[in-house]
Amino acid sequence: MTTEPSGAATPLRNSAVSSGSWLTRTAWGTLTLLLSAFAVFESQKYGLPTTAAALVSFVMPDLARLVGIRPPGMLYQTVNRGWIPLVVLVGYTVGPIVWPPLFTAGLGWLTRIAFDRTLGRGLASA
Questions:
Q1: Among 1, 14, 44, 51, which residue's beta carbon has the most beta carbons within 10 A?
Q2: Diameter of the chain by CA atoms?
Q3: Does the pLDDT value for residue 98 go beyond 60?
């Protein structure tokens, strides 16, 4: 009688994991394309300030790394959380503030997070 170690994966599990990973990345990639198209639409509609806000917020994680914020730190984790730009987008949509660069900044930020997840880069662990 042979016994397999408890951590050994069966071929069925391996294919399910790789399929889930592929499916997850495809979903993030689709979200990235939709968000970037919406950001381009809003930038075209409202002009240069919205374009600048979207671009600056898109590169914000890179700017955070250039300033010296490194991966597993709390500030780095905060910049790479998806719910924060989502709160900005929803808050802008239902709130009384009417300033389009804020909305496109949220779009750019969420687009960057979705792009990183598409490439398989999630939050850094400690």
A1: 51
A2: 72
A3: yes
